[in-house]
Design a protein that fits this description.
By secondary structure, the protein is an alpha/beta fold. Helix 13 packs antiparallel against helix 14. The protein binds zinc ion (ZN).
């Protein structure tokens, strides 16, 4: 079996660029994937790389072809799909070529504006989410003021846009999924679909804990529409090129099925009057084996557990427990202090150790949090021990956790504990 480090490096595009189909199509991994179509009249590029990978992708394309870029298409406006334009624009200016058409959905423009508004916040989020791969902290993941705005804009929910270059037809469709600005491409003559992140070779990233609402049902419907095309090649937003009608059909149908499943089972439980906790644990119990085992649904990046949260949120407000204690709750540190008044700190510490030894890591964390949150009531020695044990548990969880996003969240917290311990021990 493939280990998670190898899956994630493939997922992040550490694969060689390659030709495919009739050798006039190029698949260029660069964190996310760019797909290039060469015609006698120039190039159509579906998705730009990240700002950091821009030169690498540009050079890879220029090894295959010297034709001018005529169309740039953003599958959506995330930083790994729409911000690596610099070397392309530089070349266009140097060679005095015409500026290419840039195609995106109107919600992509709203996204670019949002990135300007929440510049610092998004930078912080991305540093948390990608902590294990972003090493250069001086280099921003995106420069919101350098977004290249679209010249051809798909508008509304049912929108599409068809164009021809050198007789080759390109069909673009908008559907919501990971984002509200997704576009996917169908090239009938070559039987190629470029899906953007509607397929990302991992369990669909519906429930990113840091990010805004995503759209499981619309996402499933988008994949159903792709299935109708009967494509021979599927260029996903992340991961390897998928080749052969059967493999394409399998990738699309299993991902669609998983999305329908998450959505429909949660809707059913909402209609039964269930609260989040019950829905969450029931959903974990009924997760079908065929999804768990399927290589396209591995929790490499996002995961099923996150998807449950996000699908619930699609239809539900933030009051999710049904317990009015949670409606206007006290501060957690005040609650912890009350628990420490009821029972001595040593009881919590020994209970947490026992739970840890029994492998009940999550429960151990909850008990330790009483000591850590209630630190003002706790001796320095106990606090140090509680923090050390929490650090150990989090590091163990990092090792066990398959999802890149979850791994980073847990590891960041472990590092914060390490820093806190240094200060306390001084
Ligand atoms: Zn992506």
């Amino acid at each position: 079996m493939e280990d998670s480090a190898s899956s994630i490096s493939k997922w992040f595009g550490l694969l060689p660029p390659r030709k495919f189909c009739d050798d006039k199509c190029y698949f260029i991994p660069g964190m996310a994937n760019s797909t290039v179509f060469e015609t006698n009249k120039g190039l159509v590029i579906f998705d730009l790389p990240t700002k950091q990978n821009a030169m690498k992708t540009f050079q890879a394309i220029r090894k295959f072809t010297t034709k001018p870029v005529k169309y740039l298409i953003y599958s959506h406006g995330h930083f790994d799909h729409a911000y690596g334009s610099e070397p392309f624009i530089k070349e266009i200016k140097e060679k005095k070529w015409e500026i290419p058409e840039i195609i995106a959905h109107e919600n992509c423009i709203r996204r670019f504006e949002k990135y300007k508004l929440l510049d610092k916040y998004h930078e912080w989020i991305n540093r948390q989410q990608f902590a294990s791969v972003i090493r250069d902290t001086t280099n921003q993941t995106i420069d919101p003021n350098k977004a290249l705005y679209p010249t051809i804009i798909l508008r509304g929910n049912e929108s599409n846009y068809f164009f021809t270059l050198d007789g080759l037809e390109f069909e673009l469709y908008h559907d919501k999924g990971e984002t509200d600005d997704s576009i996917w491409l169908w090239v009938p003559e070559k039987e190629i679909i470029c899906s953007g992140d509607l397929i990302l070779s991992s369990f669909p990233n519906i429930g990113n804990p840091y990010k805004v609402q995503r759209y499981p049902k619309d996402w499933a419907i988008a994949l159903d529409k792709m299935l109708e095309k009967g494509a021979k090649y599927l260029a996903p937003g992340h991961g390897q090129l998928i080749e052969g009608k059967e493999n394409v059909e399998d990738a699309l149908s299993i991902t669609a099925e998983a999305l329908h499943f998450v959505h429909d089972e949660i809707v059913k439980r909402l209609n039964e009057g269930k609260w989040f906790e019950d829905i969450y644990y029931e959903m974990l119990e009924i997760f079908p084996e065929k999804f768990r085992k399927h290589p396209m649904l591995k929790p490499i990046y996002g995961c099923y557990r996150f998807a449950i949260h996000a699908t619930y949120r699609l239809y539900h407000g933030w009051y999710d427990s049904g317990n009015p204690t949670d409606l206007f709750p006290a501060r957690k540190k005040d609650v912890a202090r009350e628990f420490l008044i009821i029972a001595n700190e040593s009881k919590y510490l020994s209970r947490a150790r026992l739970l840890f030894e029994e492998g009940k890591l999550q429960l151990a964390l909850h008990v330790l949090d009483i000591l850590i949150l209630g630190e003002e009531e706790v001796s320095r020695e106990t606090l140090i021990e509680a923090l050390q044990l929490k650090f150990k548990i989090l590091k163990k969880k990092v090792k066990q956790e398959p999802s890149f996003i979850a791994k980073n969240i847990i590891n960041n917290a472990a590092n914060q504990i390490k820093d806190k311990l240094k200060i306390i021990k001084k």
